[in-house]
């Protein structure tokens, strides 16, 4: 009976994720559904309007899934997240409440859902992965070792390749403004997830989710550890981590090691070397047994630092490593 109720409730969503050409379905806000289409596509995500996907309907789905699988779900004082494998073997991830906001006017909180299908592609060919008999393997942009000497071109290449960037500087040097400018540079077709303790980032990409963990108003059990689990299930193309603190440093470092590209965050430091050290110092609050020397070596391999300085009203990038 519970399974029949679940299947009946899912009918509007299943109209989308049951299609053979759909790899993933994402709902960032009520009334809209984003579809990741199978195959090589210049624009992998497309958006469709669906008035049936109201906030009440989507919230009901999360409640019914939680009840069906007997998992905890309480956005106000418990966990605002639900994970499940649906009857068709689709992987469901959802969050609702004040930890997810679409815009600054959404004071009651929003809802975000991702459903990944497991339908196999029947026309698979190794050539789709660039593996052809008698030919060399392809080189991806992220494998390029040739870096320009011009600082501007260097930064543009880092962003184009999807390298991780740590924006470093003192208070009022414009770090968040710099992040917002990077968002303007990124492709409008990317799926972006932001993780902040207060809303400061302005995301022009339409396919985006804002996750919020307030330092002063957090009432439920949603933590940065939970953020890691949620973000990796929502398959973002870019992640904006906001300001690195003792609370989130461990989670951000873990997310930077999950294989995602385009991870950006800010930190208070007066030099690139100090930025790496400050990052490690904050991680230690969560992982006191961290091998600091090894972590420092890994950071310098995986993360570029953009250092911003300020003199009076003049702000300037002083170093890019």
How would you characterize the overall build of this protein?
Helix 1 packs antiparallel against helix 3. The longest helix has 15 residues, at 55-69. The chain has an 8-stranded mixed β-sheet with strand order 6-10-9-11-12-8-13-14, sandwiched between helices. It has a 6-stranded antiparallel β-sheet with strand order 3-2-1-7-5-4, with helices on both faces. It is globular, with a radius of gyration of 21 Å. It has helices at residues 2-9, 11-17, 55-69, 151-161, 175-185, 224-233, 249-256, 272-283, 292-302; strands at residues 22-27, 32-37, 45-49, 81-85, 91-97, 100-101, 110-116, 164-169, 192-196, 208-212, 238-243, 263-268, 303-311, 314-320. With 321 residues, it is of the alpha/beta class.
| Major sheet strand order | 6-10-9-11-12-8-13-14
Largest sheet: 8 strands, mixed
Number of strands: 14
Distance between the termini: 59 Å
Average residue-wise pLDDT:
90
Basic shape? globular
Strand-pairing-aware structural class: alpha/beta
- Oligomeric nature of the chains: single chain
Number of helices: 9
* Poorly predicted ranges: none
Task: Give the C-alpha Rg.
Answer: 21 Å
Indicate the percent of residues in helices: 25-40%
What amount of the residues lies in strands?
25-35%
Give me the strand/helix succession: HHEEEHEEEEHEHEEHEHEHHEE
Looking at this protein, list some descriptive labels.
26% strand, single chain, 6-stranded antiparallel β-sheet, 8-stranded mixed β-sheet, alpha/beta, 14 strands, 321 residues, 9 helices
Q: What's this model, at a glance?
A:
Helices cover 29% and strands 26% of the residues.
């Amino acid at each position: 009976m519970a399974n029949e109720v679940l299947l009946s409730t899912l009918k509007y969503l299943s109209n989308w994720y049951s299609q053979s050409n759909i790899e993933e379905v994402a709902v960032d806000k009520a009334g809209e559904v984003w579809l990741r289409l199978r195959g090589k596509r210049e624009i992998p995500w497309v958006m469709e309007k669906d008035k049936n996907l109201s906030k009440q309907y989507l919230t009901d789905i999360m409640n019914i899934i939680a009840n069906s699988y007997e998992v905890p779900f309480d956005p106000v004082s418990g966990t605002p997240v639900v994970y499940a494998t649906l009857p068709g073997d689709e992987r469901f991830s959802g969050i609702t409440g004040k930890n997810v906001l679409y815009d600054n006017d959404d004071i009651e909180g929003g809802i975000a859902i991702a459903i990944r299908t497991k339908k196999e592609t029947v026309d698979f060919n190794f050539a789709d992965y660039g593996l052809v008999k008698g030919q060399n393997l392809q080189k991806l942009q992220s494998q390029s070792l040739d870096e320009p000497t011009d600082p501007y071109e260097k930064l543009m290449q880092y962003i184009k390749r999807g390298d991780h960037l740590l924006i470093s500087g003192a208070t009022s040097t414009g770090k968040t403004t710099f992040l917002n400018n990077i968002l303007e540079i990124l492709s409008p077709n990317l799926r972006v997830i932001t993780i902040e303790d207060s809303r400061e980032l302005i995301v022009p990409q339409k396919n985006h989710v804002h996750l919020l963990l307030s330092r002063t108003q957090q009432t439920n059990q949603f933590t940065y550890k939970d953020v890691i689990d949620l973000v990796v299930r929502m398959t973002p193309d870019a992640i904006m981590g906001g300001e690195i603190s003792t609370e989130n440093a461990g989670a951000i470092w873990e997310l930077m090691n999950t294989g995602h590209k385009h991870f950006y965050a800010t930190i208070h430091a007066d030099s690139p070397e100090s930025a790496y050290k400050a990052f490690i110092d904050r991680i230690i609050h969560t992982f006191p047994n961290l091998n600091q020397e090894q972590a420092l070596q890994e950071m310098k391999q995986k993360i570029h630092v953009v250092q911003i300085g300020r003199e009076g009203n003049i702000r300037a990038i002083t170093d890019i490593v």
